[in-house]
Amino acid sequence: MAIVIHLKRKKRTKDWYVIYLNDGREVLSYIDFILKFKIKTGKHLTEEEISEIKSISDLILAKETAYKFLSYKPRTQKEVEDKLRQKGFTQDIISKVIEDIKRYGFINDIEYARNFVLNRTKSKSLGKIALKQSLLLKGIPNEIIEQVLEEREKLIDEFEIAFELARKKLKLLKSSKKKKRNENELKRKIYEFLTRRGFTWETIGRVIDKIFDDSELYI
After folding, report:
1. Angle at alpha carbon of residue 176, lines to 204 and 129, rounded to 5°
2. CB 212 within 8 A of CB 182
3. Do residues 66 and 84 make contact, with C-beta atoms less than 8 angstroms apart?
4. Inter-residue contact 128 to 200 (CB < 8 Å)
C-alpha cells in the first residue's frame, strides 16, 4: 500500500492532477478519481486503486488528445494512431480510443479519401498515381483508395486534365528565353512534368501525341 505525500493540479488544466506517492511514483489522475477515492496528503492507496486510476485516466487522456488532434482538421485513422503512439500511449489504449472515435463518426477513411480526391480533382493538379500514393502515405487502405479512384473516373476525364496541364507547360517552355528546345526535348520535358504530377504513362503518351500532332496550334 502506498501513501499520498503530495497532490498537485497540473498547470493550465482544471481536471488533471498529479498524485505523488511515498515510493517515488507519480500518478496522473483525472479529477473523478480524486473525488472518488477522497485523495489528499496522507491517504493510503491500494495497488488495485492505483491501477484503476492509471488505466482509466490514461484512456481519458488519450481520448482528449485524439479529439483535440481531430478538431483542427479531418484526419485518417493512421494519423490519429500515429499521434497517440507518439504521445506514448499503449496499443490497447489506442485501439479503444479509435473504436470510440469511429463509433461517433469522427474518423471515416472513405469520406476522407473522397474529399481528398475531390479537392485535388477541382484543382486539376494531380493524376491517379499521385493521388494513390498520397492516400497510401496517409494510411488509407488500398481497397478504399481503389473504390474512390473508380468513383473519380466516372466524374472526370483524366486525359483532359493532363492535356490542359501539358498545354500550359508547353507554352511556358516555348516562351522561355533561356533556351530554345527541339521537339524531342519538349516531349521529354512534358513527359517528366506529367510523371511528377502522377499521371499514368498511357495518359501521358496520349497527351504528347495529341499536342505534337496538332502542330498548327502548339508550334
Report:
1. 25
2. no
3. yes
4. yes
Q: Indicate whether this model's pTM tops 0.85.
A: no
Q: Which three three-digit cell numbers place residue 69?
A: 488532434
| Alpha carbon 144 to chain centroid, angstroms | 15
Q: Which residues pair with 18 in a beta bridge?
A: 8, 28
How many Cβ atoms sit within 10 Å of the Cβ of residue 70? Answer: 16
Provide the grid cell at 95.
485501439
**Residue from 117, 120, 107 nearest 75 by CA:** 107
* Cell digits of residue 72: 483542427
SS3 string, the chain, reads: CEEEEEEEECCCCCCEEEEEECCCCEEEEEHHHHHHCCCCCCCEECHHHHHHHHHHHHHHHHHHHHHHHHHHCCCCHHHHHHHHHHCCCCHHHHHHHHHHHHHCCCCCHHHHHHHHHHHHHHHCCCCHHHHHHHHHHCCCCHHHHHHHHHHHHHHCCHHHHHHHHHHHHHHHHHHCCCCCCCHHHHHHHHHHHHHHCCCCHHHHHHHHHHHHHCHHHHC
In tens, the pLDDT along 90-135 reads: 999 999 999 999 998 899 999 999 999 888 776 667 788 989 999 9
The predicted pLDDT at position 218 comes to 47
Which amino acid, one-letter code, is at 154? K
- Decide if 84 contacts 70 (C-beta within 8 A): no
